[in-house]
Amino acid sequence: MKVLTLLASPRPKGISASIAQRFTDTAAALGADIDTISLDRLTFRGCRGCYACKGKSQRCILLDELTPVLAAVEAADILVLATPVYFGDVTAPMKAFLDRCYAFLAPTYMSGGPRGRFSGKKLVFISTQGHPDPEFFGDIFPRVSGFLEWMGFDEARLVRTCGVGPGRSEAAPEEVLAAAELAARELLQTQA
Q1: What is the spatial distance between Cα 171 and Cα 19, in angstroms, rounded to a whole number?
Q2: d(CA 54, CA 47)
Q3: Which among 162, 119, 117, 115 has a CA at the least distance from the CA of 141?
Q4: How does strand 122-129 pair with strand 78-84?
């Protein structure tokens, strides 16, 4: 079982990273192969809208530090996306990554044919936000998971905490860490 975690915060020891760490520590203890990548440390471009990925190769033609990450997404059984909310959405590195995932949609996705190349993959979406009201920014997870479901991900889980970050609580609440651990246990035990 391969778990790929993509961290999208510029803070390598931030709250979203600590929640992801609890998930991956639990998954590793259950025998998963773990790979964690900080998107903020990579140099890559966003989608150019060139549609080359809808041609013969069905791959993004941009060659940069995200290229091996996209290959790792294809190889993973579980994808963990961890991001704080910045100005009402995922961080810029996460958005650029998600845009580049357009390459994973099959050329027939708009004409009723198969949409994506993935089947049986699982998503864990970790979101942290400074605003304490969970009604704020509650639309992020449905949008992200909806696009990934188009690509064939068949299960998506949300681990979210509100009212945390600089100037607020500087640590992930224990109940959120426990939710990340539970998600790892449930996902890996159903795969066994």
Answers
A1: 10
A2: 13
A3: 162
A4: parallel
Distance CA(82)–CA(180), nearest Å, equals 11
- Tokens at 67, concatenated: 């290229």
Per the structure, the count of domains in the chain is 1
CB environment 128-145: b (16+ within 10 A), e (fewer): bbbeeeeeebeebbeebb
- Report d(CA 35, CA 1) in Å as an integer: 11
Tokens describing residue 56: 């013969």
**For the whole model, what pTM was predicted?**
0.94
Per-residue pLDDT at 173:
94
pLDDT tens digits for range 88-142: 999 999 999 999 999 998 887 777 766 777 888 999 999 999 999 999 999 999 9
pLDDT at 108: 79
Which residues of the chain are under the pLDDT cut of 50?
none
DSSP single-letter state for residue 174: H
Range(s) of the domain holding residue 58: 2-191
CATH at 106: 3.40.50.360
- CA dist 50 to 62, 103, 127, Å? 10, 10, 30
